[in-house]
Amino acid sequence: MYHTDRGIEELDERRGDEEVSLSWLASRLSEFVDDNPEFETAIERLATWLARLDDEVDEE
């Protein structure tokens, strides 16, 4: 496990059985960025990645 995986594993352990909407998640991410603007780029990249998961990938 990478050092950065600990938070992900804690999230899964503590809240993994919950169901939430993507709207709820987007609100929480916005709150996080408001409180921690230094993470805006990373959160924006994560949100964009999640939003585009189903986009077709052009393979060359």
SSE blueprint:
Elements: H1 5-15, H2 22-35, H3 40-51
Reading the helices and strands in chain order gives: HHH
Shape: globular
Number of strands: 0
Helix coverage percent of residues? 55-70%
Could you describe the largest sheet, including whether it forms a barrel? Answer: none
What count of helical segments does DSSP give? 3
SS content category? mainly alpha
Q: Nearest-angstrom radius of gyration? A: 14 Å
% residues in beta strands: under 5%
Uncertain ranges: none
Mean pLDDT: 90
> N-to-C terminal Cα separation, in Å?
32 Å
Structural features, described:
- This protein is mostly helical and 60 residues long.
- The protein contains three helices and no strands.
- The chain is globular.
- The termini are far apart.
- The mean pLDDT is 90.
Keywords, separated by commas or semicolons:
3 helices; 0% strand; single chain; mainly alpha; 60 residues
Summed up, what is this model?
Helix content is 62%, strand content 0%.
